[in-house]
Write a structure and sequence with these properties.
The structure is a homodimer.
Chain A lengths: L9 E5 L3 H12 L3 E5 L13 E3 L6 H10 L2 E4 L6 H10 L6 H8 L1 H10 L3 E2 L2 E4 L2 H11 L3 E5 L9 E4 L5 H7 L5 E5 L5 E9 L5 E3 L3 E6 L2 E7 L5 H17 L4 E10 L2 E8 L9 H4 L4 H10 L10 E9 L6 H5 L4 E5 L10 E10 L3
Parallel strand pairs in A: 1-2, 1-4, 2-3, 5-15
Antiparallel strand pairs in A: 6-9, 7-8, 7-9, 10-11, 10-12, 10-14, 12-13, 13-16, 14-15, 16-18, 17-18
Helix pairs in contact in A: 1-10, 2-3, 4-5
Chain lengths: ~350, ~350
């Protein structure tokens, strides 16, 4: 058994958004202090953290000072500059590890890793220019989606091809960035597994949730998801396989397409995940606490679902509905403390809870 | 309808202990900022609050500055100096109100208030000196308990009388403080109702919990409590009566003795209550969020219990059992971030959750 960090130890969190905020709260529940590294001021996580390093990821001295002041480092987003990780890692452990970041920062590496594990992915081919684009369409076909290999999130950096005629426009959208053409998958619905792995290799998964997106952004997650018993088992097993292969420590979000041929892995995120927010009101130990438990070396909770939950994201103008949402007597509203509402901006979410149906 | 405080408003909290800490977390969930007023440094609530006024309750300037910097004031303990309240109230609303504090700060006022409401209390008589002590014993009898009228908590400021022979020792224990002799109540068990009332007068109660004390300190709270349907109804109705009589806004803890003759009110606490900690893992909206909702003018949650829970306080050396507690896969451990463990000190609690039985 690894010796866990003692209560009162400090957890460093890279990123000060809503995920960092909810990680901070979970850490406080277990008696830990948190220190946020985030260039932006008045960020959501800073409101509930002990310390806030408001510094740039280019500031080597600040990174060093941050790493020396904390007992373990984790993060709320995967696009952390490699140069920053190099400095941090000299002074402090980082969970999840570099392998997890390397795999998830690049769609090509990610897809190749998953395929090599024996898991199904959408067909894919790399695209760097008009020539490779033509070859990719020949291989993958259309309809398909062209995506930048790096730094995409919430549908950003993506262009749809209805047919090969859209190739030039889609390629122009990438603005010269290395890209991946992904073939169309004929899926009935998307589910995700929020999986956790402890330092000692214990794996625990939450019940898969069923996701609905709007405009490329997650809109709702519903538990229980529409899955057969064997699909549910498959989902959990393949998530475990991914975590074990990476010697992963922490929580990971694994997005899956449900098809008649089986489950196809869409993408993985090496962090707590929006589609796991339902666990806050559906489980005794939620994804945020599960992640904290993993990175400090504590045993994991069992992930058992106690209630049915529908999680709805509150995006931009959805905040206008806040008075109605707050008046729903069995719904838990979670707000992120962001000062300004903007279109497409995640402002909060609501978990609608009902007694467990199955 | 009262207009609620907008998200991003700031809630001032008097007191920086574990209750303030958990109130801060609940406030953050609803998008509010918090500002703690607490003379002690590195206090539990400051770890998860936006601001910490580390100032004395004698510091009129600090109190004024604090009151001006927040949008509403609430508190985690009832023994706030009247002089401080006078200053604060000039600049900012305080919920729950002065009446609630006046009643609960003095056991005589409290018992008289409850009796005047038509509720049952233990027999009581005031004790200031040897003469009134003799009269009180003649009226109330022995066994009985002598309690200071003010500033008692967790069994402090109490002396038991097995018979009238213990009168002198008990009186000496009060060190000249005004006291109350309370007659012995032959009760089978103690329950408490965590009740909430909104600014608009909406009342919502959580399911009563059954309390077990050790050495005068709460040890466990279990839901569901052993109560008949009509006792449960009585408990909730009398709590509502108390809140309405005080035009109360916020959460109150109402401790009740269960006797064959009915429910006897032991004491009330005008704040979130240790015996309501189970709601964190038993309800969609817990007592801390319910209190925040009330004081900012939001509608209340319905208090519906989703699970069975046994809450156990972790006091002093109980922290030695932490590794075992953290390894229980369906138990939620809540720690308060206190640096030093001391005998009798509340360090955290654990909520053991199981599916709802009734």
């Amino acid at each position: 058994m690894t010796k866990p960090l003692a209560p009162n130890a400090t957890i460093g969190i890279l990123g000060g958004g809503q995920l960092g905020r909810m990680l901070s709260v979970a850490a406080s529940r277990l008696g830990y202090k948190t220190c946020i590294f985030e260039p932006g001021g008045d960020c959501p996580a800073s409101h509930v953290a002990n310390y806030h390093f408001q510094k740039s990821y280019d500031d080597a001295d600040a990174l060093r000072e941050f790493a020396k002041s904390v007992d373990v480092i984790t993060y709320e987003f995967e696009n952390i500059p490699t140069s920053a990780l190099d400095i941090l890692e000299e002074h402090c452990r980082i969970h999840p590890n570099r392998d997890a970041l390397r795999v998830s920062q690049d769609r090509l590496t990610e897809k190749t890793f998953l395929r090599d594990l024996g898991l199904m992915t959408a067909p894919f081919a790399t695209v760097d220019d008009a020539n490779s684009m033509a070859a990719a369409i020949a291989e993958v076909g259309a309809p398909s989606i062209l995506k930048t290999r790096r730094f995409g999130y919430d549908g950003k950096g993506q262009a749809r091809l209805k047919s090969s005629e859209d190739a030039d426009t889609a390629l122009a959208d990438m603005a010269g960035a290395p890209a991946l053409l992904e073939g169309f998958v004929n899926f009935s619905h998307e589910v995700s597994v929020i999986a956790a792995r402890s330092i000692d290799g214990q794996v625990s998964c939450f019940d898969p949730g069923e996701n609905v997106h709007k405009d490329g952004i997650l809109s709702t997650t519903t538990v229980p998801a529409r899955l057969t018993g064997s699909q549910r088992m498959d989902a959990v097993l393949l998530a475990g396989k991914i975590l074990n292969a990476l010697n992963y420590v922490g929580v990971m979000g694994v997005e899956l397409f449900v098809t008649p041929q089986g489950l196809i892995v869409n993408e993985i995120a090496p962090r707590v995940h929006n589609s796991g927010h339902w666990t806050q009101n559906g489980c005794t130990i939620d994804q945020f606490e599960q992640h904290i438990r993993a990175v400090v070396g504590l045993p994991l909770g069992d992930g058992q679902r106690m209630n049915d939950v529908v999680m709805e994201n509150l995006i931009g103008d959805d905040m206008d509905r806040l008075p109605d949402l707050l008046a729903e007597p069995t719904s838990a509203v979670h707000l992120y403390g962001k000062a300004d509402t903007k279109p497409g901006r995640k402002m909060g979410h609501v978990n609608r809870v009902s007694p467990k149906s199955s």
